[in-house]
Structures are given as structure tokens and as C-alpha cells.
Design a protein that fits this description.
The complex is a heterodimer of chains A (about 200) and B (about 200).
Chain A: E1 4-6, E2 12-15, E3 21-27, E4 31-37, E5 43-48, H1 64-79, E6 85-91, H2 104-118, E7 123-128, E8 134-139, E9 143-148, E10 154-158, H3 161-167, E11 186-188, H4 194-201
Parallel strand pairs in A: 1-3, 6-7
Antiparallel strand pairs in A: 2-5, 2-11, 3-8, 4-5, 4-6, 8-9, 9-10
Chain B: H1 7-32, E1 36-38, E2 42-47, H2 48-55, E3 61-71, E4 75-82, H3 83-93, H4 100-125, E5 129-131, E6 135-140, H5 141-153, E7 158-168, E8 174-181, H6 185-190
Antiparallel strand pairs in B: 1-7, 2-7, 3-4, 3-5, 3-6, 4-8, 7-8
The chains are: A alpha+beta (about 200), B alpha+beta (about 200).
Chain lengths: ~200, ~200
Amino acid sequence: MNPVVSVRMGEFAFSSRTDDELAVVGLGSCIALVLIEAVSGTIGVAHVVLPTTSGDGTPPTKYGEQAVPYMVKELKKVLGASVKFGAVLIGGAQMFQTARTMDIGRRNAEAVRHALSDAQIPILAEDTGGTSGRTARAVVHGSVSVKSIGSPARELLSLEQSKFERAIRPATRTPVAATRSSLSATQASLPMSQVSLSATRTALR
Amino acid sequence: MSTSYSEIQLDALRELANIASGGAATALSQMLGQEVDLSVPLAAAVPLEAAVETVGDPSEMVTGVVLGVSEGIDGLVVLLLKQDSATKFCGLLGVDPDSEVGRSAVGEIGNIVGTSYLSAISSMTALSLSPSTPSVVCDLLGAIVASTLAVTAADDDEVILVDSNLTLIGERCEITFLLLPGEGGISSLLTPLGLGENDG
């Protein structure tokens, strides 16, 4: 059994090992931002909570505007500079009708879309808005899928190599360096969560 | 702007929650004509990413009643009922849990209980706390809790969870209360108790 990594509020995880699963369980106004690298099929998932920050923005993956450049930078560190990404957005619902919680979901989705457009990353699939919670799952070389209450799980994007390459054709097909090709499920996150991450982190080194 | 709270401050919040949920328990007991038991509340400073799991299983279906708090402090009061508890409450009130009436009955329970909770805090802190109209949602615990934390935690990496439970004696019927203070909310609550300073 491959591990299922649950990506919690503000966290970021990635993997390129076939069948590894990255999941965000119980998304309301938050966004699961999935970046898929075209050649290796590496998946990075961030659990975005807010559109942007006026402060120092830690962890960057908590904020839509900061998450995209941070994820690209971190993934390029392990995959090399000449890689091409596609994105999937899931979440951004408006759960409550109170003034206080209004609109965060929509603003989260807008911030992420804007940051993706700045980074010239195409959105390959999206399931955002509405008033229901969602659970997002991304399986390396498998698929990205979403499930809402009262409806069956739905595949948003197939990541099987042949189908996926048609959806996003990389400009240059640089193979991933052999030493880097077997990343394990790894989480880069805030210092407070290191206890749960230390086991998976060492696999990267 | 991560802040750490002293054990004395957390104790004070626990005591605040204890008295507040005592007030809520009385209101619930009067409404239903049943005895209500009160657990010892939790007050803890938790890293944001661990907060949802501290409250419960993110994939569990729950009914959430969310009350905004305005004036005195900035924050939200969130009541969570597991599905069987919501059904049981509706049964005690004689309404169909799957109907619009059932949902508004659960909202009304939330409203009454949440308002008593806040008025108990008001009388202890001399802050005037008025709740907004409740919003009732039936969804994944993770979606409900994370969406409310997104509003109250804002830029903080650490959230203060004040969590207490009411149980109907003899029934497996439980309400979880979360008090989620927004920016500056904790110090507004602690200052009237003489514990406003972070290093106090």
C-alpha cells in the first residue's frame, strides 16, 4: 500500500512515486491547489487557507498569492529548472451565509488563479465555488478527483501518462535526473508540524 | 505574529468556557426538559495545521451552527453536532431531522445555547457580546472548522481552541462548542480578568 498523505491547513506535500496519494479532506473555503509536473508526473498539493497576507506570510502555502511561486520554486529544486506545470483547483466554497465568513472561498480561488496566470501555469481542471464541502485526492500517475457530500467521487483529470501528455505538452522534454526520480511522499511545512513530517522528510535527502 | 499563551491564561479561558457552557447547559436543559452534563473544557494553543484534528475527524459529517460575535470581541462561536445527536435533538422537539423545519430547529437550539454561552461570557467580562443570526450547515467537519478558522485565525500560525461539550444525560446526544476569537479577541477576553498581558 502506498501512503496517503493528508495535507492539512497551510501545508504543502509532493510526491513522484506512482500511486502515492495526496489528499485534502474537508475543504470548505480553503483551496486544494494541485500542481502537476508534465514529464515526471510529480504532484505537489498545497492547502491554501487565505487569499493573501500583509505579514511575512508563513507558511507561504497558506496563502493563494504566495503559494504558487513558492511551490514552483520548491519543486524546481528537486526536479530541475526546465519543467512545466499544470494546475488543478478544488474548493473555495461559501459554507456559511454570515457576513464574517462571506466570500473567502471566492477570493481564495481568484488569488490562486491570478498567481497561476502570473506564473504562466495553465489550469487543467477546476471544481470551485458552491456551498458544499469537498474532499480532494491526487494520485501520482493516477488521477485528480473530488468528492462532495451527497454525490459520488468524480475524476477531474487523468494523470495516466498518455492521456496527461495530451493535456499538457511540455515545451522541452528534459528527462528528470535519475537520482531525483524516486521522491517519496514528502512534506515541506511549518516548523510546528515537523514531528509528523520528520519520517517522510528524510527520504528526500 | 505567532503568540504563546501562559498556562494561567489558558486556565482563565478554560474557566471562562466552563462558566459559559454552564449557562448554555442550563438553557438547553430548560428547553428540552432534560438533564444536561458538562465536560471539563479544553483550552489550548494549537498550530493551525493541527487544529482541525484537535476538534475531530475531518471526514465526519456534522451539523454546524455558526454564530458571529460582534461588538465586545471579534470572533465566532461554532456548535457542532454529530448526525445522530442532531437527529436525537429533532426527535426530542418532535420534528423531522431531514426537513427544513428540522434544520431550523437545530439552528434554533444553536441560537439559544450559543446566546446563553455568550451572555455568560458577557457577564463575567463586562463585554457586550451580541451574536449574529445563526448559519446552519450540514457538511464535513473539516470543511466547517477550517472555514471558520480561516476567518478567525487570519495571519496567526497558532490558534486558541476553546472547546467544551454538553451531553444529555441518558442519551448519546452531544453538542461541541468552539469559541474562536478573532484578531485581538483573546486579549479582549483576558484583559477584564486582569490577565491581558501575554507574559502575564
